[in-house]
Amino acid sequence: MSCGAEALAQTTAGTATDSVSHPAANKTQPARSAKPAAKSKALRTRQSAPVTAGDADGGSEAIVVTGTREIGKKARDAIAPLDIISHKQIAATGQGTLRDALALLLPSLTTPTAGFDAGAMTDTISLRGLNPNETLVLVDGKRRHNTANIYSNPGPQQGSTASDIDMIPMSAIDHVEVLRDGASAQYGSDAVAGVVNIILKKQARGFHAQNITGITSEGDGFQQGVYLDGGASLGSRGFVHVSGDFVHQDHTYRSAADNRTGTYQNNILSQPEQTRESVAVNAGYDLTDNIQLYALGTYAHRHAESYQNYRLASSLNAYPGYQAIYPWGYSPVETLNENDFELKAGVKGDFQGWHWDVSSVYGRDYDDIGLINSVNLSINKATGRTPTSFDVQGFNNQQWTNDFDFSRKFEFSGWPHSVNFAGGASYRYEGYSVGTGSPDSLYGNGSDALAGTNPGNAGNYSRDVAAGYLDISTYLAKGLQLDLAGRYEHYTDVGNTQNGKVSLRYDITRRIALRGTISNGFHAPTLAQKYYSALNISPTAARGLIGAGSPGALANGSSGLKPERSTNAEGGFIVEPIRNLHVTTDIYQINMRDRIMPGGNISGATAIKAMQLNGFALPSDIGTWNQSAITANWFGNVASTRTQGLDITVTYLTKLGAFGRIDWDAAINLNRTRLSHQATNPLTGGPLLNAASIAYLTTAYPRSKIIFGGNWTHAKWIIGLHEIRWGQTTNQLTYYAPGPYQFSTTHFLEYQNKPKWTTNLDVSYRITPRWTATIGGNNIFSAYPSRVPDGNRYLGAPQYYMSTSQLGINGGYYYFRVNYDL
């Protein structure tokens, strides 16, 4: 079910393919005159042509907009690896979210296995084994704002505040273009591992409805999704397309027995419960035959809940007020109420051969994080009150981006090929706010499980970003494409960056092509990475993440953050040895310097002092705890790494005559990251990373991921069968059992999450021309990750390792889908 290269996605959940075109097909033909209505459609298509179902050969004719500044570039001629996923492929997975659907379709894309706390309630993606912050998300070619909810817990996603792609209605999506290539020179910060460009529907007619109902093999995790969209004309010169989703998922429960009680009351290992409503309105209108206004608005609200570790009833023996409320103990639940919106307005057109586009995009994400089913023992002791719910944190992230882009093809005497010249400038404002917790969450030792943010760690922060770029593409000879890109960016807080990219593609014959790219890129530290801080308290442990510029961090050797920088090299070939068989192979290397992750890893009295300098309220008896269980760290430029990998995609069409057709597909990603340099603490001279942190950088993502199978289409039936092999991950686990290494930050157990196979099956039947029903399942034989050794589970409950990005913890998922098309 993977989409492996640059061609039109099929109607079923198969793989899109690269096709090799004859160089003569690349010549630009003169534009013909068009009626106003036709011109309107052409202008809309220039920004993002909708993907429509076609036959296997016609797929390569899709127009792509990602990774190129040329107007009307065809997928078959793409100069860099590009996956195209249609909305029909997304729906065929049966998943209720775009993130989970893409994870089943793309070998190079991974998602967190489970996650902790508030971080588990934001849906992020990773490309090529790098942090989600190294993947740029665009919507119709425009930078999407990021979430305000940072993933703060230890793991490969730690520090990420990437765009939450599931805050965009899935019903609004026409297709997704995934550029597997470094593209900072084209798009700026974050495009180190690649670019995910979400192309929205722009049809001016029709109505589509979809219902997905699913449940896991354990009988929990019920999911319900309703997806609606439709379009209408604005006179004869415009369109409006409205989309809306309602998605709900219940908790799943995968914890083992709690060591303290022998019961299954500790639900720490579980899928969060969430309910999400989202809407999108997309519109365009031709003011003249050559000028079009366009606009987009999206809004989403999410309520989510995530379990914390169970607290024993004996912990309330001295607090009769709370004991009466929780006679059997309690499990604090972290909650998220999130409001996310984005508004875009722009005007684009043609003037004497110049294509120009002026746009402004404002996006904002606000997260109100709270606790329910919890306590504040200090309040109860001092006043007798027993509050059970708390408003603990508030985060706001806003982004205002203004772009001016232009391009034109030139013909020069003496040069036989046209030269496409593109350029542009942008200004972006970024703001990040941290709000204080409620008085009840701050009083005394604070609310249990997650103390409120104190005033010393709250604040409003911002920066300005100005950028300019140039892009030149042409043919050097028959069949030999060249693309040069350069970009300059200035950040008011971290300085300047200069980035360049050189890409070549050579069509040796109409069935064989070579391509390669060399570029450099960067990821500017997010404002959240610079200023976020929080304290998480478990029954017998405390972990603080303190701001990089805070008093506690500076006292222990922290320094200001600087951008991550990368050097990317990629090369590959595309072949079509026989008709309908398409093969692409690409190798890549990404050298990253100054990678940002928490470092320092101080513990015991040193950590307590650092957190007290930052105003954290700690439990009054913390001095009696195992001092190794009290830790703190901060974000820093901790290491340099080298990521090397291989992508292979294969598609083949078998025509069975009266018995239909089979679209075969296979795709593989091999990926390995190694540590090439580790930074040291300037005060102590010691390394900033321990073995566990190094594993998060190098081995927490799958070593490989393979997807293969096919889709049989016959009359009214479509049957899809695919296998996914999830490669091994390796982590360094903390010891929790009593012994010499309990809670050690220097001695760990190497844990290998062995490779796993899963089977996905779906059967669709077209009841009428408008109604289609599907029954299917993902991981139908209910494979689970490898179990964690008993002595390395905190309190015994988390039997699967949560800080990795391999197979999920839920087991099998079975669904029923109904589609209606008008």
Automatic annotation (TrEMBL):
Keywords: Cell outer membrane, Membrane, TonB box, Transmembrane, Transmembrane beta strand, Transport
Polar residues bias spans: 9-20
Residues covered by the TonB-dependent receptor-like beta-barrel domain: 288-780
Record localization: Cell outer membrane
One Pfam family this sequence matches: TonB_dep_Rec_b-barrel
Similarity comment: family membership: Belongs to the TonB-dependent receptor family.
Main subcellular localisation: membrane
The keyword Transport belongs to this UniProt entry's keyword annotation: yes
Disordered: region residues: 1-59
Membrane topology label: Multi-pass membrane protein
Superkingdom of origin organism: Bacteria
Compositionally skewed regions (Low complexity) per UniProt: 30-40
Protein name per the record: TonB-dependent receptor
Domain TonB-dependent receptor plug stretches: 75-195
